[in-house]
Amino acid sequence: MTQRVRCTWAQNDPLMQHYHDTEWGVPQRNGRALWEMLMLEGFQAGLAWITVLRKRDAFRDAFANFDPQIVAAYDEADIERLMQNAAIIRSRAKIEATIAGARIFLQIEQSNQNFADLCWSFTDGQTVIGDGITIQASTPLSERAAKTFKALGFKFVGPTIVHAWMQAVGIVNDHAHDCFRRDA
User: Fold this and answer.
1) Does 49 participate in catalysis according to the annotation?
2) Is 41 an annotated catalytic residue?
3) Quick check: pTM over 0.85?
């Protein structure tokens, strides 16, 4: 039986393998899904992605399946409820950033813009293909996108987080040169 070659980071954990094989790097064009992943990447700040991935279902339960209409209406009682939820990452700043992020998402959508179009505008709607060898924490592209997101009021959107997000949602294809998903 031939063993599939994967990106190094996804070789040892079955959950990471599944995420890599089915989701990571697949171009995502749904604005709500792009926003959800941006918020999850923010929760990852300072932690390993596997921590967020293991808690993703709990995050979806806690944040109403990342429905921006519902999350935008969260108040102090909701923040306190979330702070007591041991199934998620209980960072007040990250919880508040997610609620604020829902409000920003809605402002963008209500101003006749489209969040997905905004996200893909950084690359003119095309996936940027990395060289498959170099591993970068951030790029000039992620720095530009992070600056835009920060100007809109998003939090936890530094260049490193935004680069990881761009890879995750397929705006950037950084699969390793020998990974079976690189040309998928």
Assistant:
1) yes
2) yes
3) yes
Enclosing domain of residue 65: 8-173
Is 109 annotated as catalytic? no
Query: What's the domain count of the chain?
Result: 1
CATH number of the domain encompassing residue 157: 1.10.340.30
Task: Give per-residue pLDDT as tens, 11-22.
Answer: 999 999 999 999
Beta bridge partners of 173: 129
- Catalytic one of 9, 23, 49, 96: 49
Residue 22 resides in a domain: yes
Task: Kindly name the residue from 19, 23, 96, 143 that is annotated as catalytic.
Answer: 19
Are the beta carbons of 31 and 116 closer than 8 angstroms?
yes
What's the chain's Rg over C-alpha atoms? Answer: 16
Structure tokens at 176: 């390793």
